[in-house]
């Protein structure tokens, strides 16, 4: 009987842990207001970035902003839903190079530093985004 | 030494002339080792010199001084890389025998050698791919003052050695900070990098030698790490120690980098406890 109670407790604990998403990165980035400022800061930097600004000249920048905020929020474990296209779909025809991707990473790093995001938190977000490179470049 | 001076001059000019903003992320070109290959100070990494990505050129010029109690090593060189795939490098080393030359009344007070290097990225990526970046390299070394090495048992004044190395940057891998891990094996019979010739009276065949390093990036500009390099022991006249160092690298931008290190070089040509300071400056594009 004791064993059953123990098992039940363990099962309950496991369920509770699954139910509560880890939103620590979301909070480290400053929640939705923080992520909004990071995305806007990054887009402002891109607008001044001669390396990659051309790729953004034909896009609906308001939509890009909204979808990026959703995406970063989801990746950071925040209470959002990503409603945009897949990474492959949204970069189709842009033929982005590895250098373009790195330029965007640098603009994002600078925007996070401007927002006072700690280096470990920056690295956590980059670690979530880095595996997407293959879905972004050469499309 | 004219060549050294010219290279140093070039190192000063590169930061002003080269466009350095595209390409790879800061510090991913590494520093330059004392044999001219991109990487740490005493071990090459799988990364290629400079900041060129796919379809782009990259490169660097560097100058390094290592000062132990009894010896001094000066190195200068240049490396080019294309397509983030192939690196070609050249380095000239001048090893000042200092106290040893005085104590033994040697006919020469320095030993020099030229190192021609090639490194090919086989697969993987330092940061992005599923696989770590793996590169295969070869170094052709020509010792230029062979009298002393020949007298102490070295068998030849030039040789070629190969190395295989893997590097990976783990985002947040060290308590949230980025961790760079690097490991490699070298197939060589170079005595003290080749400054004391190649092969010896005790052993004349190449050995498989392990080398590696680990470093933490506190932010994109500062990196602190350790390196280790196994060395062969071919000459009976003196032991040859494995090398290790603790280094601090500063990468303020993609054009300039400086590395300061404390190196433990052990016994070199009968003189033991050769601990010393290492300083390297690099200009990149």
UniProtKB/TrEMBL annotation, chain A:
Cofactor section: heme
Span of the signal peptide: 1-19
Pfam families: Bac_globin
Bound cofactor: record note: Binds 1 heme group per subunit.
PROSITE patterns assigned to the protein according to its UniProt record, in alphabetical order: PROKAR_LIPOPROTEIN
Statement: the UniProt record of this protein carries the keyword Iron: yes
Residues annotated as binding heme: 91
GO molecular function, one term: metal ion binding
Keywords: Heme, Iron, Metal-binding, Oxygen transport, Signal, Transport
Protein family according to the UniProt entry: Belongs to the truncated hemoglobin family. Group I subfamily.
Protein name: Group 1 truncated hemoglobin
Organism field: Stutzerimonas stutzeri
């Amino acid at each position: 009987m004791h064993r059953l109670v123990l098992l039940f407790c363990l099962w309950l604990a496991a369920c509770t842990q699954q139910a509560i998403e880890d939103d620590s990165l979301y909070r480290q980035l400053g929640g939705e207001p923080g992520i909004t400022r990071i995305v806007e800061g990054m887009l402002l930097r891109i607008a001044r970035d001669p390396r990659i600004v051309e790729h953004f000249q034909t896009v609906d920048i308001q939509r890009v902003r909204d979808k990026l905020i959703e995406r970063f929020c989801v990746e950071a474990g925040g209470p959002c839903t990503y409603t945009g296209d897949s990474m492959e779909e949204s970069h189709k025809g842009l033929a982005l190079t590895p250098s373009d991707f790195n330029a965007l990473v640098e603009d994002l790093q600078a925007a996070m530093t401007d927002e006072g995001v700690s280096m470990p938190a920056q690295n956590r977000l980059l670690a979530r985004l880095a595996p997407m490179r293959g879905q972004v470049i050469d499309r | 030494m004219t060549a050294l001076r010219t290279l140093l001059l070039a190192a000063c000019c590169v930061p002003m002339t080269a466009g350095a903003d595209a390409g790879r992320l800061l510090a991913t070109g590494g520093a330059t080792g004392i044999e001219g290959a991109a990487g740490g100070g005493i071990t090459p990494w799988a990364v290629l010199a400079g900041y060129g990505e796919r379809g782009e050129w990259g490169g660097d010029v560097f100058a390094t001084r290592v000062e132990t109690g009894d010896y001094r090593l000066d190195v200068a060189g240049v490396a080019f890389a294309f397509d983030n795939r192939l690196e070609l490098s050249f380095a000239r080393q001048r090893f000042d025998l200092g106290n040893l030359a005085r104590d033994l009344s040697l006919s020469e007070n320095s030993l020099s050698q030229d190192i021609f290097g090639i490194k090919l990225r086989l697969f993987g990526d330092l940061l992005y791919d599923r696989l770590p970046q793996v590169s295969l390299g070869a170094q052709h070394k020509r010792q230029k003052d062979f009298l002393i090495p020949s007298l102490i048992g070295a068998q030849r004044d030039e040789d070629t050695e190969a190395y295989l190395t893997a590097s990976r940057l783990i985002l947040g891998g060290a308590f949230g900070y980025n961790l760079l891990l690097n490991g490699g094996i070298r197939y060589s019979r170079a005595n003290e990098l080749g400054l004391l010739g190649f092969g010896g009276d005790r052993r004349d065949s190449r050995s498989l030698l392990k080398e590696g390093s680990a470093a933490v990036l506190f932010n994109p500009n500062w990196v602190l790490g350790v390196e280790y390099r196994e060395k062969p022991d071919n000459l009976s006249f003196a032991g040859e120690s494995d090398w290790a160092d603790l280094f601090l690298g500063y990468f303020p931008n993609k054009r300039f980098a400086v590395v300061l290190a404390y190196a433990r070089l052990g016994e070199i040509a009968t003189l033991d406890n050769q601990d010393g300071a290492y300083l390297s400056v690099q200009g990149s594009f």
